[in-house]
Amino acid sequence: MNVLSTQDLRNLLRKREIAPVYLLFGPETHQRNLAAQHISDIALKDAQLRDFNETEVSLNSQDIVEAVAAAEQLPMMGSRRVVRVTDVAVTTNVQVCNIKEKDEPALERYLKDPADSTVLIFVADEIDKRLRVAKLMIENSVAVEFTRLSEPELIQFARDKIRDAGSTADEKTVRQIVSLVGNDLRKLSIEIEKLSVAAHPDALITFDIVNDLVPASRELTNFELTDHLLENRPVRALQVLKERLDDGAEPLMILGLIGSNFHKLLLAKELMNEGVPRGEVTRSLRLPYRKQEPFLALARKTDREKFAEILKRIARTDLAIKTSKGTPRMQIEALVCELASMH
Question: CA 205, CA 194: separation in Å to the nearest integer?
Fold first, then answer.
C-alpha cells in the first residue's frame, strides 16, 4: 500500500496535478481539512457555478452508496465537480464503522473506474489499514496520512505562523507558545493570531504577552502524568509518557512541563498554608475551572518535602539530558519510574 506524506501531497499540488480520488486520514485534522479544501480550490479554480459543482456527503447521516451516486453525476456548466465525503470511519468497531459490507461492491466498482469529471475526496476520521475496504481505498486513490507534528515541526509551524501574521518573537517565546498550546494546529493558529493583534503596534510577541494571554492547556494536560507520579502508579505513568514521546514530544520539553506542574503544586500548597483565599490561588496559577479541585487537592495532601525532593530529581535529570548522560528518552523514563515509586 502506497501512503503518501503531507509533503508528498504538497509537491503534487504545487504542480496542479489533481487525481480522481483522494483518501485523507490521520489524527492531524487541521492540516487534513485544509488539504481537502485546497484540492477543491484547485479542481474548481475556473468553475463558474462552483456551488452547483461542489457536494459534501457526511457518512454520519448518509451512506457510501449516496456518495458514489453523487460522484457519478456530471458537472453543471463546467469540466469538473468535487464530491467530499466526510466523517469516514473504517474500523473493526461495528458501531463506528460506516462503510458497511453490503455497500462495498458499489464503492469498489467506482474506485476501479472513477468518473473522469469528478474529484472524489474521502476525509476519514479513522482508517484501519488491515481491513479489506481500507486496503481497497488506499490502493485506488491518492492516500495521504496526516500524522501529529513532532516537537521541532510544531516549533517551525509556530515560527511560520508568526511570520505570516507580520509579527516577530524570539526562540524562547516561540517555544513557550508551543509548550502551552500543544499539538492542536488549529488552536495554535488561533492563539498566534490573537498574540499578533496584542503585539501591536511594534508587532513583537514577548514572553510576558504569551504568559498573560495563552491558556496553559498543554501544561495542564500533563497534570495527568503528575497525578500518576504522586499517586505511585508507575505503569500508568509510563503509559502516558510513552504516548507523549511516541507523539513526537521532546523529552526535555516534557521534563519542563512536569517540572512546571510540580512548581505550581508547591506554590499552591504554600499559598494555601499562608491562608490565601482559594480564588486568589487559582487566579495566580491560571488554573481552568475543571482542573482546580483535583489540582488543589493533590497540593494539600502531598508533603512539602516530597515536592522539594521531586524538584531536585527533576533538576538532576535536566542536567543529565543536557550533558548527554544516556539518551534523553532513557533519562526521563528512569525519572518517571523513580518518582512514581517514591513514598
Answer: 10
Boundaries of CATH 1.20.272.10 in the chain? Answer: 218-340
> Which whole-number Å values give the CA distances from 296 to 122, 226, 292, 302, 311, in the listed order?
45, 13, 6, 10, 18
Whats the size of the chain, residue-wise?
343
What fold, for 3-145?
Answer: Rossmann fold (3.40.50)
pTM passes above 0.70: no
Digitized pLDDT (tens) for each residue of the chain, 343 residues in all: 589 988 899 999 998 889 999 999 988 888 999 999 999 999 998 777 888 899 999 998 899 999 999 999 999 888 899 999 999 989 888 888 889 889 999 999 999 999 999 999 999 988 999 999 999 999 999 999 998 888 888 899 999 999 999 999 999 899 888 877 877 888 889 889 989 988 888 899 998 888 777 765 455 456 678 878 888 788 888 888 887 777 667 788 788 888 888 888 899 899 998 888 888 888 777 776 666 788 888 888 888 888 889 999 999 998 888 887 678 888 888 888 888 877 6
Cα–Cα distance measured from residue 237 to residue 332, given in angstroms and rounded to the nearest whole number = 11
Largest interatomic CA distance in the chain: 75
- List every span in the chain annotated with CATH 3.40.50.300: 3-145
Q: What is 151-214's CATH number?
A: 1.10.8.60
Kindly give the residue spans of alpha helices, DSSP state H, lying in 140-286.
151-164, 171-181, 185-198, 207-213, 217-221, 223-230, 234-246, 251-273, 278-285
Q: Where in the chain is the domain with CATH 1.10.8.60?
A: 151-214
Of the candidates 295, 317, 289, 21, the one whose C-alpha atom is nearest the C-alpha of residue 140 is: 21
Long-range contacts, stretch 72-79, CB < 8 angstroms, 24+ apart: 72/110, 72/115, 72/118, 73/118, 74/117, 75/47, 75/117, 75/118, 76/49, 76/52, 77/48, 77/49, 77/52, 78/44, 78/46, 78/47, 78/48, 78/49, 78/53, 79/46, 79/117
Which numeric CATH code is attached to 218-340?
1.20.272.10
